[in-house]
Amino acid sequence: MPQPDSEWKVDVQYTELDRLLHGDSSNSQGLAAMSKKDFKLHDAVLKEYSKYFGKDLTEDESLGGDTMRTDDYYTMAKYFYNLVTDFYEYGWGRSFHFCRFSYKEPFSKAIARHEHSLAHRIGIKEGMTVLDVGCGVAGPAIEIAKFTDARIVGLNINEYHIEKATGYVKQHGLTDRVSFVHSDFMQMKLPDNSFDAAYVIEATAHAPSLEGAYREIFRVLKPGSIVGIYEWVLTNRYDPNDLAHREIALALQQFNGIAKLFTVSEATRAIQAVGFQLLDHEDLADRPTAMPWYHPFTNSIFNTQTWSDVITYAPMSRWGRTLTHYLTGCLEMVRLLPRGTQRLGDDLSQAGENLVVGGEAKLFSPMYFMLAKKPEVDSS
Length: 380
Prior knowledge:
Elements: H1 16-22, H2 30-34, H3 39-50, H4 57-62, H5 65-71, H6 73-91, H7 107-122, E1 129-133, H8 139-148, E2 151-156, H9 159-171, E3 178-182, E4 195-201, H10 210-220, E5 221-234, H11 243-254, H12 264-273, E6 277-283, H13 295-298, H14 309-313, H15 318-333, H16 341-360, E7 364-373
Parallel strand pairs: 1-2, 1-4, 2-3, 4-5
Antiparallel strand pairs: 5-7, 6-7
């Protein structure tokens, strides 16, 4: 397997803010990593992120919230993940995405199956160079690299993510197959026609324009190559004239770092508008399954499907989130965690509650699947 090309290697140069905020916390996880932040900067970043949303729907719409957020999507997304990454690892794991659950299926296997399914449908195989658009801390990249033996290049705007991801890749002995690029998926620092395939796992939910993000993916793929996408969408049941629906959409945006949510029709139109041939698309959340994708947020540690998941589900269960609320509050009081950590945890708990509401009402899906092909070059 060839070594990553020099143009795709990344020597992460932290911005001064990121360097000072995170320090050496990338070597730790969860609450331990949170305790190593610069406390004043953490509080400042939380306050800056809060400015992107009104106190309620009326104020947010009067301020032109969607426009403000899409105009400043880059900074907003960086603030969000600088705040929540350690919480995500503490409560969910290293693969920052949802999945469906089969009967008696452990959480980790369900997450991996969701990733394997995407790789299989794209046709990723050994010898291919594949772009992971918005790679997080490399949970999916590592899994897909092991599953397919392909070479994965992860793209991410967040330096802290890349710092952590690089460490995890070393742990798995995959430095010859997984590398990273620090870049915005709206303006990729990558050459044209350079990848054999690409995938997106819920990452372009942070895009200010799906068409803009998909256009960049189209540009860097080789002719004839395939992209597979799990997209966050508002379903056809969503009614923009329904106040309750708009309130749910705003909550999903606020507590998940999203500038604007797009509809199913907007997503399918966008991918075709940039030149892709849409081969297949469906909402995987509509498929019959033992447990829905939002199951972890409704679950209790006392009714997990497998005993092995009791510990896994503990932080994300309602009981676990309540315990985290009081634990982080106590640690804040004795200055072992930065001010605002408890509030941040409460916000993420609200994210879970609103995801359940949106999922149960079928107004929202985090797994609208699209499979698309960049046309072959016309040789005539």
